[in-house]
Every structure is written in C-alpha cells, then in structure tokens.
Task: inverse folding
C-alpha cells in the first residue's frame, strides 16, 4: 500500500477529469483497440490499484485484483460526452481511473481520466 499525502481533498471530486480526443487513421477494430487499451492500462501500476481509506481517514493506493478501467464503443458528440461524464464520479475505491470512449463512425477516441 502507498499512502496518498497530496491532493487528498480532491479524491472524490466529480470534476477531476481530463478529456482528450485522438483521431485514429487506418483500420482499427474494436478487438484491436480493446487489446491495446488493456495492454497499456495493465502496464501502469497505479491503474491496477484502488483507493482505500482506513479508520483514521488515511488514504492509500492498494492492489486491485479486478480494476474497473473501461473502454466503451458508441457514437457520441465530444461536447455531449464531456457534459455527461463530468457528472459521474470515478469509482476509485473499485479501481476505476480511466474511461475510454471510442466512436468508430468518425474514428474518434476520447480518453476520460
């Protein structure tokens, strides 16, 4: 376990997110994009953790057997997706740190983390 000592007050802030749009040129199947997402996420220790708060109010990163980072394929307008997602808190206590949304029709990928 690694103690969280900075930015402690922001742990459950709904608006703590980064939105980024990536344009993918070429052929990329859902399977290939899902495999690439899983490979990248699994390579970063912090994305395979969850937040634990002990009885004294101390927060820690702890290993998570089944992190909830996700990739979702659906059509969306970037501004609409951002407005939708900024209202949804990340479930950091279950290991959710990244939500990736992919729109295959216009080849846009949005990473929300």
Result:
């Amino acid at each position: 376990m690694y103690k969280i000592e900075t930015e402690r007050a922001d742990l459950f802030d709904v608006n703590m997110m980064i939105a980024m749009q990536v344009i993918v040129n070429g052929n990329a199947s859902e399977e290939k994009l899902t495999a690439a997402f899983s490979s990248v996420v699994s390579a970063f220790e912090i994305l395979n953790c969850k937040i634990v708060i002990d009885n004294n109010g101390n927060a820690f990163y702890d290993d998570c057997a089944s992190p909830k980072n996700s990739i979702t394929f659906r059509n969306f307008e970037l501004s609409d997706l951002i407005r939708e997602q900024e209202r949804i808190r990340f479930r950091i206590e279950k290991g959710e740190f990244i939500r990736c949304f992919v729109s295959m029709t216009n080849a846009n990928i949005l990473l929300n983390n």
In short: The mean pLDDT is 83. The first helix runs from residue 30 to 42. The CA atoms of residues 51 and 93 lie 5 Å apart. The first strand starts at residue 2 and ends at 4.
